[in-house]
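Sat 14:20. Reprocessing the chain from the morning session after the first attempt stalled halfway. Input below, unchanged.
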Amino acid sequence: MKAIFFDIDGTLTDRASGKIVPSVYGTIQRLQQKGHLTGIVTGRALYKTRAVAKELGIDHIVSNGGAALAVHGQVVENRPLDREKALSICKNAMAAGYGLLIAFEDSPSVWMPDERFLEQCGERKEPTQYILKEDLDLEQVPAFYKLYLSIPQEDEPKLPWIHALPSLRFESEYLMYQYDEKDEGIRRMMRVLGRDIADVVVFGDDTNDLVMFRPEWFSVAMGNACQALKDRADFVTKRNVEDGIWYACEHFGWI
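Finished this time. Tokens:
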């Protein structure tokens, strides 16, 4: 039996509407009936992933870019960023005049020492609770789970300190720091479950899925995936909104 992990945005969901592709519900149910393990693997924070998992009846979650694991709804781990490196990035950003948001827990809340991020970028495109703390002492922040820096794309080449931790850019106005270890998260999940890594199948669509398209297991790129992911995939299925997940699972006899 396979252990099949799905990215969310652009894979399970239609990016245009943000809703789960209708055929996904029946596909997940059929996979589970056939005895396959189903899981989600995503860069989303754990709190944002739980609702999707519950809606689809999926028990296993690899989230926060591979740093958080939940098995049967129970959190196994949720690792914060390296503290010293996160502190260094924050201090450099503030000294250089860039806005800063700090996610210090698994929630929609972020701390900000001033309003520069909002002034330079505006509000983020996802629901966020902004907590202004002008006397914020970075040394007293309990943990750094994600960082958002208002560094425009054109400024990156002149800021070597931004590379102390892996970052992702989904918006031209700011950088996001989180783990980029979906592959490691899957490995840890499989160890927790006592499963063979060769059973793994992953579905993805974007550049942040490249890290989990590994030779140790089987990788499926959606028809709407970026070309770099298609080039690395073992199989390219139809677009997600054309029932690509169902098509691949039926093609390989998993359902």
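The longest strand covers residues 37-41.
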